[in-house]
């Protein structure tokens, strides 16, 4: 029986993932540069097409970066131990496929970042390789595939991240993981066909499985699966911790201002700004009925494309669409208009939202705090961060500081 030699140490080093992770760390430490490279739909539509690729390198928190980086490094390491490594065509196809899919099919997704879509593809590619091995490898491969499949399906159904205990709510992007996994599956099948044509000796593969070190690697693959089903995006490190949720149908009368509100069907990242004004992320299918039961009269939508007017009006509420774009042109006038709508008693109780309830919603609520309630800039920015404002949007931070400086002194 011929025993296949293990790949040399230097060959097994995940060079590509190391390079990608290093670039991601550099961007995380340089928000102005990250803002130039993050996936920004409006900038891409204006011709900055490089963001389709570079957006994968931008991460919004340390946890986001560490989770994706670990998954990439572990997966490429195991693939290189198989001898062939990650095909070059995977690195060419997967990032572009994910970016194009988001741009073409998620027209209301303003920003995106992270290597999770590419990591899912690499994990599926690894599973495809292991499915051609011995029984222990096949079991590990099935566990990986079940983990990735569960992540995509459950996040798509619930609009909530898997294994998100202890993190603030956000809206995941299952399409990125689905497309990445599809690319990995396609290349795994193509690789299987190529191996068949070359009559690869399966006996060598089975011999390698008898190695104690390789069996240890099989056990370690469970760590990759855990990384694969962790949230693809987590809020900034400064985000407020999530308390144990309490079943909630109506708001408690003693609720504090700015208090987060949990377990509202179809709603996420919800908070009460002040009596009569609420904020949150894009409502899910059940969210509009939940808003109606909470007594909401007006829903203000800050997103740029998709209309929810029919759903809002069907629930008996008034719909106002006032898109806030990432450009600073005319931003002051738009924000002032939203603040006026929020403060108008005729519209209250009012619910204002964008897609995630973090960035666009964050700046209009901060403007309301400072203009109407006379909050300090520091307090307004602190509240922005607590609801997950992404520091990558340097222009938004500059805007809100300039907005504060231009307010009349009182």
What is this structure, in a nutshell?
Helices cover 54% and strands 7% of the residues.
Structure characterization notes:
The longest helix has 24 residues, at 135-158. 44% of the residues are buried. This protein starts with 8 loop residues before the first helix and ends with a helix. It is an alpha/beta fold. It is built from 18 helices and eight strands. The strands form two sheets. A six-stranded mixed sheet has the order 3-4-5-8-6-7.
Low-confidence stretches: 1-7, 164-170, 195-256
In DSSP terms (H or I, runs of 4 or more residues), the helix count works out at: 18
CATH architecture heading of the largest domain: Up-down Bundle
CATH homologous superfamily caption of the largest domain? Rhomboid-like
| Largest sheet geometry | 6 strands, mixed
Q: Report the structural category.
A: alpha/beta
- Extended strand count: 8
Radius of gyration: 24 Å
CATH topology of the largest domain: Rhomboid-like fold
CATH class of the largest domain: Mainly Alpha
* Residue-averaged pLDDT: 78
Name a few traits of the molecule:
single chain; 410 residues; alpha/beta; Rhomboid-like fold; Protein-Tyrosine Phosphatase, Chain A; 2 domains; two-stranded antiparallel ribbon; 8 strands; disordered N terminus
Topology:
Blueprint: H1 9-12, H2 15-28, H3 31-37, E1 39-40, H4 41-45, H5 51-54, H6 62-81, H7 88-105, E2 111-112, H8 116-130, H9 135-158, H10 174-197, H11 202-209, H12 212-228, E3 260-261, E4 270-274, E5 277-280, H13 287-293, E6 298-301, H14 309-314, E7 318-321, H15 331-343, E8 350-353, H16 360-371, H17 377-386, H18 394-406
Parallel strand pairs: 5-8, 6-7, 6-8
Antiparallel strand pairs: 1-2, 3-4, 4-5
């Amino acid at each position: 029986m011929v025993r296949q030699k293990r790949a040399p140490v230097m060959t097994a080093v995940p060079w590509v993932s190391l390079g990608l992770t290093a670039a991601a760390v550099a961007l995380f430490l340089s928000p102005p540069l990250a803002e130039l490279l993050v996936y920004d739909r409006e900038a891409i539509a204006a011709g900055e097409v490089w963001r389709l690729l570079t957006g994968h390198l931008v991460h919004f928190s340390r946890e986001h970066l560490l989770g994706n980086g670990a998954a990439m490094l572990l997966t490429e390491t195991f693939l290189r131990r198989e001898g062939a490594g990650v095909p070059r065509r995977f690195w060419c196809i997967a990032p572009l496929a994910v970016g194009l899919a988001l741009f073409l099919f998620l027209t209301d997704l303003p920003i995106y970042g992270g290597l999770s879509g590419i990591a899912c593809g690499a994990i599926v590619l690894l599973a495809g390789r292991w499915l051609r091995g011995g029984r222990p490898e096949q079991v590990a491969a099935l566990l990986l595939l079940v983990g990735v499949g569960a992540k995509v399906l459950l996040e798509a159904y619930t609009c909530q991240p898997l294994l998100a205990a202890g993190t603030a709510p956000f809206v995941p992007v299952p399409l990125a993981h689905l497309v990445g996994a599809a690319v990995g599956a396609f290349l795994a099948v193509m690789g299987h066909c190529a191996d068949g044509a070359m009559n690869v000796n399966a006996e060598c593969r089975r011999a390698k499985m008898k190695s104690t070190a390789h069996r240890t690697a099989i056990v370690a693959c469970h760590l990759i699966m855990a990384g694969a089903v962790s949230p693809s995006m987590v809020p900034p490190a400064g985000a407020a911790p999530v308390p144990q949720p309490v079943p909630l149908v109506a708001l408690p009368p003693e609720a504090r201002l700015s208090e987060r509100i949990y377990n509202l069907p179809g709603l996420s990242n919800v908070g009460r700004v002040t009596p009569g004004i609420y904020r949150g992320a894009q409502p899910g299918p059940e969210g509009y009925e939940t808003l109606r039961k909470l007594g909401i009269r007006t829903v203000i939508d800050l997103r740029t494309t998709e209309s929810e007017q029919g759903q809002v009006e069907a629930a008996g509420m008034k719909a106002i669409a006032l898109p806030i774009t990432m450009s600073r042109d005319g931003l002051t006038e738009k924000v002032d208009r939203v603040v006026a709508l929020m403060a108008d008693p005729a519209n209250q109780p009012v619910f204002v939202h964008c897609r995630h309830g973090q960035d666009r919603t964050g700046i209009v609520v901060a403007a309301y705090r400072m203009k109407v309630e006379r909050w300090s800039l520091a307090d307004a920015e602190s509240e922005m961060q607590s609801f997950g404002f992404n520091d990558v949007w340097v222009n938004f931070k500059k805007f809100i500081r300039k907005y504060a400086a231009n307010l009349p002194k009182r």
